[in-house]
């Protein structure tokens, strides 16, 4: 596994002339670090397409490849953020003669996950992630007669964690995070997942709780996965798991916990309800628990959402200055990224690049994925970034509604949602 600082990197001028050089660099690093040929070739193609499509105004483009065990990540860093990268948006019409736009579109389609963030002074980082595939396997069912939990839940060794995930998967407990033990072990090794597991007197797992990074300074809780039958011991297990998780979180680095999809058994009284997500059963609450005092901040909101956000700010007693976002600097070129879960029929949209056409781009993305059969639509806007507010109008026109406000003083997260 390669850390972000240690990842091999190469800086090249933008443009077609250097695209093949960048692709060969990625192939070479992948071969040297043992990344599978299938993933290496996809990453090389992404690097080649992005370099070829990069305008001269990019000045310099830096490539860095990291093996994160459960995924491979390619960072493409531009020295300037003033770029036309609208081709990354899947909803835009394509002109076959626009080689740059088609190339960016192909790069976005090749990635499983795409993100953008500021880099350095005035730069822009594109992150392309490819998830590793894990072969299907038969999982053993938990044995009869698991005992009462003994002692406090622990940060488990790999064998214990894998056994918990196998048993939870066989029993259908805990939710999607508790599936495919090999993936869970790789996520934890990469620092993308943390766990607490309760054990019985024979050191067998009887329940567990996971948490993963979410936003800037938040963690998303997953679970609990409970292997004990209903009764007092099961309720006490939930309490012990949550207390252990809270003890394991580093204060000052994590501002709060969010629960988007609570598994059966989660003690909701320990959390604040910050919204509701629609689903086939009519909806479920989004839960939040603050771990430190909220110092207050600025929330940038589209006019159409001001009353709703102001109401939530009052209800949650947040110290927020609610401001109207300034107009974007660019007239066109907005783009969104989509994270899809085909098994759940769900797509989550996030802004990539802001421009004055953000509303139209947001509306087109919702139409695109509805046309592909996705029944659950979500969008996540960072209200700490004024440019994100421009996407809200299009999302509302497309039928999404504000569902939850997740507090983060550095930038509250607004979750919008709709079901077909």
Structural summary, described in words:
With 420 residues, this protein is an alpha+beta fold. It folds into 3 domains: 1-133, Heat Shock Protein 90 (2-Layer Sandwich), CATH 3.30.565.10; 158-290, 3-Layer(aba) Sandwich (Aminopeptidase), CATH 3.40.630.30; 293-420, Aminopeptidase (3-Layer(aba) Sandwich), CATH 3.40.630. The protein has 9 helices and 18 strands. The strands form 4 sheets. The protein has a 6-stranded mixed beta sheet, sandwiched between helices. It has a 5-stranded antiparallel beta sheet with strand order 1-2-3-5-4, covered by helices on one side. The protein starts with 8 loop residues before the first strand and ends with a strand. The mean pLDDT is 90. This is ATP-binding protein. It comes from Falsiroseomonas oleicola.
Multimerization status:
single chain
Corresponding CATH superfamily of the largest domain: Histidine kinase-like ATPase, C-terminal domain
Shape: globular
Total of domains? 3
For the termini, the CA-CA separation is: 41 Å
User: What summary fits the major beta sheet?
Assistant: 6 strands, mixed
CATH architecture of the largest domain: 2-Layer Sandwich
Helix-strand string: EHHEEHEEHHEEEHEEEEHEEEHEHEE
**Number of helical regions:** 9
Radius of gyration: 22 Å
């Amino acid at each position: 596994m390669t850390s972000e600082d240690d990842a091999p990197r190469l800086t090249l001028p933008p443009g077609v002339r250097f695209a093949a050089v960048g692709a060969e660099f990625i192939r070479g690093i992948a071969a040297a670090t043992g990344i599978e040929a299938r993933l290496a070739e996809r990453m090389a193609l992404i690097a080649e397409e992005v370099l070829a499509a990069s305008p001269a105004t990019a000045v310099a483009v830096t490539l860095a490849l990291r093996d994160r065990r459960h995924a491979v990540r390619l960072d493409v860093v531009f020295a300037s953020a003033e770029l036309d990268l609208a081709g990354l948006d899947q909803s835009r019409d394509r002109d076959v003669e626009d080689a740059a736009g088609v190339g960016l579109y192909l790069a976005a389609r090749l990635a499983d996950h795409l993100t953008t963030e500021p880099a350095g002074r005035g730069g822009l980082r594109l992150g392309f992630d490819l998830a590793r595939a894990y072969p299907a396997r038969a999982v053993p069912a938990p044995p009869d007669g698991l005992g009462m939990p003994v002692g406090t839940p622990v940060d488990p060794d790999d064998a214990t964690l894998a056994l918990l995930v196998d048993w939870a998967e066989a029993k259908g407990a805990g939710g999607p995070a508790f599936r495919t033990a090999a993936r869970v072990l790789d996520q934890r090794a990469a620092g993308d997942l943390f766990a607490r597991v309760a054990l019985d007197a024979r050191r067998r797992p009887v329940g567990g709780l996971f948490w993963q990074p979410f936003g800037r300074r938040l963690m998303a809780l997953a679970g609990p996965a409970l292997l004990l039958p209903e009764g007092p011991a099961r309720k006490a297990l939930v309490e012990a798991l949550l207390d252990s998780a809270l003890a394991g979180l580093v204060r000052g680095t994590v501002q709060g916990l969010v629960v988007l999809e609570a598994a059966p058994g989660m003690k909701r009284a320990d959390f604040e309800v910050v919204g509701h997500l629609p689903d086939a059963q009519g909806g479920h609450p989004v839960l939040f628990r603050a771990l430190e005092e909220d110092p207050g901040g600025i929330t940038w909101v589209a006019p159409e959402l001001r009353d709703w956000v102001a109401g939530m700010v009052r209800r949650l007693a947040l110290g927020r200055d609610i401001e109207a976002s300034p107009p974007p600097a660019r007239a066109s070129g907005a783009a969104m990224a989509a994270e899809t879960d085909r098994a759940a029929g769900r797509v989550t949209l996030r802004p990539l690049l802001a421009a004055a056409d953000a509303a139209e781009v947001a509306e087109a993305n919702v139409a695109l994925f509805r046309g592909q059969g996705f029944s659950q639509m979500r969008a996540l806007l960072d209200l700490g970034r004024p440019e994100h507010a421009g996407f809200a109008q299009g999302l509302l026109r497309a039928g999404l509604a504000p569902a939850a406000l997740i507090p983060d003083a550095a930038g509250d997260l607004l979750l919008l949602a709709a079901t077909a």
